[in-house]
Amino acid sequence: MDAPRPSGARRALLIGLPVAALAALAAVAFLFVDRDERPAPNARPPSAESRAARQPQRRDEAPVVPPAPPPAAATVSAAAQESEPAPDTDPEASIIDRMRAALTSNPEEVLRLDDEASRDLGDSPRAAERGLLRVRALVRLDRIGQARSLAEDLIERYPDDPSAKSAAAYMGIHPRPRGPSR
Questions:
Q1: Which stretch of DSSP H or E encloses residue 71?
Q2: Res 142 pLDDT > 50
């Protein structure tokens, strides 16, 4: 037996409703998509900021504001930064940077720089970091005994400093735990 056929009005609803829904979706899509997406001859390509600005926002969200470009005076090339040292608040930073740079190629220079820094700066907050670089330079120069002694001294003087812990680990020193022993 055949199923009953829908009447004319009912058939129109069954066919027309999906067609109307598709037409409504096409109209909404037409409103949000530019018809002519070819750029003007002198136009810049769209960037991420312009795409973000075109996206619809929800009412409870704050508007998306693109980040402001850095001032022109603040953009200095890397080559200019290397040729002219910027004034540092930490006078030891440039010495440590030079020590790191010389570590692989000239370990004697690392020792010389550390001697100068120790004479000029004494026991500064970054002395343990300088000591770590000195330990590594001594190892490169095959002066293992001096490196081990220095690493032991660093871990005793600066027990909580990460650089001192790194120097001790580099030399295979396992410091005794502080506090009462069992």
A1: none
A2: yes
